[in-house]
Design brief:
The protein has helices spanning 49-59, 93-101, 103-116, and strands spanning 17-19, 24-26, 34-42, 68-74, 84-90, 117-126. A hairpin with a 4-residue loop joins strand 1 and strand 2 (24-26). The chain is an alpha+beta fold. A 4-stranded antiparallel β-sheet has the order 4-5-3-6.
């Protein structure tokens, strides 16, 4: 397999994947980067206006300073009861902590997350040190 080349990106933009000749690969976490991921289920009916409104409000969190590689996804496997997921990355712990304390995030959690989410699993990943 030949070496892949990356197109030039704007300063501060982190690529979310790297295309090779056969697969799409997520950008690997390295250094102090953190990947914040949450799988969740809503009280709302699938396809409802309430579900759409919640997901739109969730997507607005991408505008908080320090948030990178943001995506909202839908679960397709019957192996669990979670229906949706959200994932984002941060340059380091300070950026993650600033996001967590940001008034828009705190407001979303209090006004939307707590009353509308029935169950969730939150996982925050950091790069594994190679030995």
């Amino acid at each position: 397999m030949g070496a892949s080349t990356r197109p030039a990106l704007r300063p501060g933009v982190t690529p979310w994947c790297e295309r090779t000749t056969s697969v799409v690969r997520m950008a690997a976490l390295s250094g102090p980067r953190i990947r914040h991921s949450v799988a969740f289920a809503l009280h709302h009916a699938e396809g409802s206006e309430e579900e759409a409104g919640f997901l739109d409000a969730l997507r607005a969190l991408a505008n908080i300073p320090g948030v990178e590689a943001f995506e909202v996804v839908t679960e397709i496997s019957p192996k669990n009861n979670y229906r949706h997921g959200v994932s984002m990355e941060f340059a380091d712990r300070a950026a993650y902590d600033a996001y967590d304390a940001h008034p828009d995030h705190r407001s979303f959690v209090a006004q939307r997350w707590v009353p509308e989410v029935v169950d969730f699993l939150e996982i925050d990943f950091a790069a594994t040190t190679q030995h």
